[in-house]
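hey team, just a heads up i'm posting the complex here instead of the shared drive bc the drive is being weird again. everything in one block, sequence lines first with there labels, then the predicted structure for the whole assembly after. its four chains so it's a bit long, scroll down
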Amino acid sequence: MLKVAICGGSGYAGGELIRLLSSHPFVKITAVTSEKSAGKTVSNLFPHLINHTNLVYEPLNKHRLLTKADLFFMALPHAESQEAVDFFLRNRKKIIDLSADYRLRSPEIYEEWYKTPHKFRATLRKAVYGLPELYRKKIAKASLIANPGCYPTGAILGLYPAVKAKIIDTDSIVIDSTSGTTGAGRKSETAFSYCEVNEGFKAYSVAAHRHTPEIEQELSAVNGKDIKVNFTPHLAPYDRGILTTIYARLKKNAEAGKILDIYKNTYAKEPFVRVLAEGKFPNVKNVRGTNLCDIGLAVNKRTETLVVVTAIDNLMKGASGQAVHNMNIMMGFKETTGLEAIALFP
Amino acid sequence: MLKVAICGGSGYAGGELIRLLSSHPFVKITAVTSEKSAGKTVSNLFPHLINHTNLVYEPLNKHRLLTKADLFFMALPHAESQEAVDFFLRNRKKIIDLSADYRLRSPEIYEEWYKTPHKFRATLRKAVYGLPELYRKKIAKASLIANPGCYPTGAILGLYPAVKAKIIDTDSIVIDSTSGTTGAGRKSETAFSYCEVNEGFKAYSVAAHRHTPEIEQELSAVNGKDIKVNFTPHLAPYDRGILTTIYARLKKNAEAGKILDIYKNTYAKEPFVRVLAEGKFPNVKNVRGTNLCDIGLAVNKRTETLVVVTAIDNLMKGASGQAVHNMNIMMGFKETTGLEAIALFP
Amino acid sequence: MLKVAICGGSGYAGGELIRLLSSHPFVKITAVTSEKSAGKTVSNLFPHLINHTNLVYEPLNKHRLLTKADLFFMALPHAESQEAVDFFLRNRKKIIDLSADYRLRSPEIYEEWYKTPHKFRATLRKAVYGLPELYRKKIAKASLIANPGCYPTGAILGLYPAVKAKIIDTDSIVIDSTSGTTGAGRKSETAFSYCEVNEGFKAYSVAAHRHTPEIEQELSAVNGKDIKVNFTPHLAPYDRGILTTIYARLKKNAEAGKILDIYKNTYAKEPFVRVLAEGKFPNVKNVRGTNLCDIGLAVNKRTETLVVVTAIDNLMKGASGQAVHNMNIMMGFKETTGLEAIALFP
Amino acid sequence: MLKVAICGGSGYAGGELIRLLSSHPFVKITAVTSEKSAGKTVSNLFPHLINHTNLVYEPLNKHRLLTKADLFFMALPHAESQEAVDFFLRNRKKIIDLSADYRLRSPEIYEEWYKTPHKFRATLRKAVYGLPELYRKKIAKASLIANPGCYPTGAILGLYPAVKAKIIDTDSIVIDSTSGTTGAGRKSETAFSYCEVNEGFKAYSVAAHRHTPEIEQELSAVNGKDIKVNFTPHLAPYDRGILTTIYARLKKNAEAGKILDIYKNTYAKEPFVRVLAEGKFPNVKNVRGTNLCDIGLAVNKRTETLVVVTAIDNLMKGASGQAVHNMNIMMGFKETTGLEAIALFP
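-- predicted structure starts here --
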């Protein structure tokens, strides 16, 4: 049994990790940290876990945790992960960091968007971006995984086959995403209270969201030269799921009839990507509680534009599910272990 | 008192017309039609109207209705309006048609998108597109108003100032809209039942929605030459409201700092458009139950793209509220009469 | 124009008062207070009010407010109203207090349930319980109105005709209520954040809710001797509305067939109560945004039990709408002034 | 591998059975029937099942099905199950019937409430009521299980310990339940369309719901003499879950302090009942997607009344989960097999 610790286990991503790892056959959770809730039982904060776990929150004491676990899931707010990640890595532990701290390969871009210094540049260079569909082999050998952001996961998976096949004009990309409210975290802010979100719909961080450089970094790497994208996130009144609608002008040589095949072939062996049949489009409801990314696409012949729509569960494929997938790859477990649940519908 | 009839009064737009017109000081509803519900009271179908109306549904008997009213609101499904509109117009009545039948000036384009013939081309030439912000003067003199579609209202108002000012590349327009579920009408279809819509989010009619040519027609008219747009509607789990996020590449000569002023100036005298302060973006929740269109915008300097976000209540500014506004203009009433209600928040 | 001030105008009840009073033809709002938001515009906290009000929040400075208004709406948390109410009353102002501070005629019972002393017992004796259907005449002459609680409004109106007619066993009353989440106020607490409330349903304050003695006080007064009730509130995932389902065993002499008439007669002249036809039951959706209380009832012959169901909008008839109704009565305005809006459906 | 067939697999309970049985290690689904959808793939109706099943709907041909399966789940509408159940039973198959057809031991009471004759009285006498907490031993030996109704499951489990311990006045029982909208089935009725249900809350079938005699039958059996109950169901805007709030007057000899222990002891060995700690009450959100029944209780000392609150997922413990539990007992599988999933929160 692999001993794992979860640093930052009182939020939604942390709760989801506890849910997934409690049922994982090859793993034992040995510690869960929370500064605010230290001393409380996990099931006190998450009553759905009553009878499923006896864990008690403890403060993040790095030296104490070292003796308890061999793999660390870091679900701390951005900037708070940096130092602990470095510490565990130096002590030869494996780490899957769900924060943004090790996702951007350029510390300058990190500092520009996150407005905080990156103090562990040598460690940053060791991090592997944990999107298995792009980096499976590197993940298998890595000790530090930067688990992708929720929006980037849906956006990159939606664009990867088209960018790789060089069928779109990479200057023309528009990414319009909508997230359920778990994306905002488990927070006590009026703006995310029930009555403010319910029956509402809005764009936010327009032309300024921090996931933009992450999307650009990965698409640029596939493309071989820099891509800039227009990205707008929206907040919607449901719990889980991100739907991403992507627009990109087709190059003249692109054969509209073959694009679906390009997508199907790209993801043919992927356990967690479903490319839907022609004319079918995804709904976040169909992937809820799963690690799946559903993809549908259409070609708008009037405007010579490719429209791709992807759906993920932001807490699963967009966070904790993908983290468990990364762990399975790192440890050599069957990739789908602990992630077999079928979507809860309705 | 102006005597008005509502043809097709059992759906949501019809119910909203009854709600608005029951409180309108210069209007008396003399007839409401429904084939299915003929003989039933309006308050039987709409219990919120108990004590507010004694109207009883009757079948649409054109000759009988002629004697009852001087202005007709047509809230029938597409294609069903054509003949009745023509009949009432020939009999010198005023008509506000909420269907799509008289919106597209080209009968060929209508037939291409709606898959049904247009049999009244001479009448079609008399119709005025009822978007007051663009056609106020024509509306004042018109007898037949084609009340705009819900998505086109939000899209056109969001793009009109930019297209008119020639600051955007009109080849690059992406319109990404999300509607609450009243947009689907009052329907007994499994796909719109509570549990199918709730906790879901999806795109639909991708690259194929019928409101596309309507948006293109109006933007092209402003532009002076043809515009084609990418338009994707989405369905979201809330009752009322359309949020539209629009992307268009800025021309090189566009001065980013002046764009908000262009928008503010364009709509300075409009009673139902609120251009928000810099950095503020609309939320459908803030216009619920009102005839308002809220507009916010940002310039993405990294991609030289204008992002405009608009919010309307699809049953109000997107349908029945705009119809009442058109009536007020046609009849010389103060434009805001009967449309003064403040949004119900939360 | 009557000059009114709103003390505590940043919560939902306060926002609703601003919405209602901004449209009231005989009233001018001259001040709105908030300690936290002093200096901010009202429309900054409530963007739906943009263009409808230029008011700016100010701190609650009693002496300054005295010069500004003649009637005060107090929408402060419990216990915070006591002293200010006393001050304004001594200075011959009229007050409508939406808090619980002056609702319970017994200061001992107040102190038992609210765990705080009542320091203004003489003032308490002058307060009139502002439920117009029971106390219209007293309200007309009063200077201090204790505006009823949201749950008590629905519960008392549902039981009043039956208790008065002495047709039920007053030892057997069960009151089961469900409130939308605006009932919890505009709060930054995790427990009321979107994802905690959405897709959930729970009972709370079981056998211990503070509205219990308020319900008992009023029913006991009607009954002529003490009544104790079982009351359980529930929290549901919607914004507005309280549905109350009431059970009481019928006395042997009660004629089941006449009970609906008793209800209809009791409320025949009430502008804000709709007793529904036999077999019809209320839905909070049908009273949303209105000051109405809808009532439906059935007799369970198998158990000889009367079941009454009532629906109100908790922010309107359960708070701010009823407060405006009370103001209209106190000032001799037509009772429905400013409260004519038809429910927003759907 | 046990071969099972699902008769009536296009509704929510059927979909849930497919979801659960697809993951069950000892079971193979060999047939799923639907008259309307015969010939379509299951994943066409339930896109969340894409890649999880290749099943195709077929019409219910009894003779053909006989050769295909050894255990039959019947998820047909009431009255439609009767004959097929009898047929399969005569052919020595095992049957778990999710309809109401074999739940009521008295065919007269069935006919009174369901307004349809019961034509298979001999078969009815062989049916075992499939509530494992009450009838585990009989279930283990049974061939025909009448799977309990959703409301009765929550109501009976909430009252069983108190009735058995004879601590409540059985004349005074009030059962107030609220169901999510999946309880209405997968239907194309306007009344259950999104916009009619959303932001609404209502009681229905007041004093007349068909689950009443089922609750009474089981409580009377425990009690040893007839019990009649007041039962009111409500419809709420969320997908899954029934919360039941139960009131019953305590007998004089009841010791309030011992009641929680009575409940804890009664269910101490039950894998799917969680009696919560003192002061804690259930929320449907905490059992979503599970076969659990959470129970909380309080004693109202002012009224000498016991208040019990229970929560279940109506599609799981209230239907398909309980059906799988019954199958596990009948077949001698470990009871929790295939039902281990932790609740999806949030």
